[in-house]
Amino acid sequence: MKTQRRYDIDWLRVIAIGLLLIYHIAIVFQPWAMFLGFIRSEDSWEGLWKPMTLLNVWRIPFLFFVSGMGVYFAMKKRNWKQLVWERSKRILLPFLFGIVAITPLHMYIFQSYYKISPNYFPHVGHLWFLGNIFCYVLLLMPLFFLLRKYENSTFQKVLSKVMNHPLGPLSIALFFMLETYILQPQPFAMYAQTWHGFFLGLLAFLFGFMLMYSGTNFWKTVLKWKWGYFGLAAILYGIRYYVYATEAPGYLMSLESISWILWVFGMGYTYLNKPSKTLTYLSKAAYPIYIVHMFALYLGALLVLPLDIPVSAKFIIITIFTMALCFFIYEILIRRIPLVGPLFGLKWDIRPNPNKNLPEIQNTFDKENLKTGNESLS
């Protein structure tokens, strides 16, 4: 079944991964960085965290929404066995490989920085996100295929009608409010390897699929009402920042999170739903870069933090170093070595290309890469 290409979703995922890198780098300059297992700068920059508090309630839930949307696209051309096999190759394999070969690297750098005796041990680290997604696929797959079987059912028509109202998309916040009421997370943004992170991600993954399943009315609504969602999110953030010192009650933070996410979807649909060669490249690179970015970040911190320069300069240099090293690793190792790429989530394509030396093939737009966008990190 043919589906319309959604370049805005590709762009938003790439942007979200970029924000994730900056967010993690900002943690290095906070006095509580070691509590999360990060290398900590002796020179703190607590003011840097102010803009990060605007991101921390929606950045991870947003990626789970996008991942659920990616499964919707993937199911259009796969049965359940093919979906499980494809997700095992694209998610489970990089997850398991990363636990034994990637996350121990940045822990080794951590030990070196603090002059701790080196000790190898596999651990999940930042790859908890991939483990969660694979669990969600297995847990929700029966429901997703049941919904696909009845794609033009009364339920879908009712859902589409609900999403035609500006409060329709916003109503899903009720489920997230309930989750925070039951689990009482402290703090709200502690997603990694917590039950709060697991169930919040499960809801976001489910509703990412459901929003695509509901049809075009959802996208028309966020297109029309995006600034209304922005206004609500901004008001809720103002309350959280000035009244609650950035940690408001869970129900307010859940509503703020969904409001930001709806605004982001509306902005993306307005301005980003168009192809480009830059998007083709970045969409394919985003997943491997997510996997290796903590190694690059820790190495940058190891090299830059001892320098006698202003803390703002350290932040800028570590940011540039992290991104440059990530792209270098992607270009030199992951993208160009066929047997390495699948370990970082790239498609399994180890067949030689008999036409690779033909100029007309080299100069055409890479159509195969266009297929990776909506399915990466999903």
TrEMBL record:
Entries under PANTHER family matching the protein: BLR4337 PROTEIN, GLUCANS BIOSYNTHESIS PROTEIN C
Protein name: Acyltransferase family protein
The organism's place on the tree of life at top rank: Bacteria
A GO MF term: acyltransferase activity, transferring groups other than amino-acyl groups
Keyword DNA repair tagged: no
Pfam families hit by this protein: Acyl_transf_3 (PF01757)
Record-annotated membrane-spanning stretches: 12-38, 58-75, 91-114, 126-147, 167-183, 195-215, 227-245, 251-273, 285-305, 311-330
Organism: Maribacter flavus
Domain (Acyltransferase) ranges: 7-330
